[in-house]
Amino acid sequence: MTDVACNTMRAAVLTAPGTFELREVPRPLAGRDEVLIKISRVGICGTDFHIFNGHYAAENLPMIPGHEFTGEVAELGEGVRDLTVGQPVVVDMNIGCGRCFWCRRNEILNCPDMQQMGITMDGAFSEYLAVPARLVIPAPSDIPSEVLALTEPLACVVRCARKANITFGQSVVVLGAGPIGNLHVQLLRTIGAAPIIVADLSEERVQMALDVGADFGVTDPDALESLVRDKTAGRGADVVIESVGLPARYRQATQLIRKGGHIAAFGITGAEEALDLNIVETILQENSIKGSVAGMGQDMHDALTLLAHARIKTDRFTAASFDLEEIQQAFDTLSERPGDLKTQIVI
What string of pLDDT tens digits covers the 347 residues of the chain? Predict the structure, then answer.
């Protein structure tokens, strides 16, 4: 294990789509108002998989990906006073200027100077990472690192529910029962949404969603609308969360919401994909659609609180792990392991 006193560290560099190289690279230094984090666990996100396959952020390669991470404070930069060495932490991966209109509103992704760890700049598939101290969140010492590494993906789900104004007694359809879809279901159950209906082509993942709180599940897209109508007194769902990123599912969402319903646009599609909306119908029925994809600011704190108080069942998210040296294998086999809701890299 590389010591903090050394000036190099191990890192998994994605040199080209589909190819990781384990390299010895310069260890970053904690600059003013920065903290050096000794990484312990990093989750593989769907975005990481898109980057790995060359579908996203290919212009930033070669790069060290990874943004769903936890670790401990290894070194404090000048001016950092509210953190201590050895403290377990999680980190908000979204870096804004902190001064513009959007940063003041906690809409960091719209900041003109926005950067994201592991996406637009080097991230956490490495032994150390230097980050702005203002984005470091102390974590309880009794939470296992594999659970702490779920803070960032859960924060994304928290933000989606917040943006959609979901509350108790609302009917919600979740399109997609992958890792994020499963977290959507669990958070909706905590909020008190009812009924919760989940749809996915995978019977295994639908069953996992039912196990953690979905009321109804379906694997046949053609049978979904009749199920939704049946379980909502014919009205349609109050909210539909698209968590797959397919234009066909977004089109389906418009048919599943009730009059005055809401579509939470969460799944990322291709950059050129568009959604046709019946404008008059949208206006007269007072339907709405709002995008949300990354948790930030208070979303991270709320997600950590939920994990600290065991509001989320995490067993299926923490069962699969690979050492940093095995990262190529972890990515190569990811799509072959649908039962592993999350795969984590142990540093």
Answer: 345 667 999 999 999 999 999 999 999 999 999 999 999 999 999 999 999 999 888 899 999 999 999 999 999 999 999 999 999 999 999 999 999 999 999 999 999 999 999 999 999 999 999 999 999 999 999 999 999 999 999 999 999 999 999 999 999 999 999 999 999 999 999 999 999 999 999 999 999 999 999 999 999 999 999 999 999 999 999 999 999 999 999 999 999 999 999 999 999 888 888 898 899 999 999 999 999 989 999 999 999 999 999 999 999 999 999 999 999 999 999 999 988 999 999 99
- CATH superfamily of this structure's domain 8-153+295-346: Medium-chain alcohol dehydrogenases, catalytic domain (3.90.180.10)
Domain ranges (residues) in the chain: 8-153+295-346, 165-291
Residues catalogued as catalytic? 47, 50
What one-character DSSP code corresponds to residue 45? P
Q: What is the CATH number of domain 165-291?
A: 3.40.50.720
The Cα–Cα gap between 48 and 50 comes to: 5
Its pTM stands at: 0.95
Inter-residue contact 223 to 234 (CB < 8 Å): no
Cα-based distances in Å from 34 to 136, 151, 278: 9, 21, 49
CA-to-CA separations, 46 to 49, 58, 68, 150, 267, in angstroms, rounded: 5, 15, 11, 13, 10
Whether cis (ω within 30° of 0) applies to the bond prior to 247 is no
